[in-house]
Amino acid sequence: MASNCDTCVNYVFDEDEEYYYCLVNLDEDEMYRFLTGSQGACPYYRPDDEYGVVRHQM
Question: What pTM was computed for the model?
Answer without folding.
Answer: 0.63
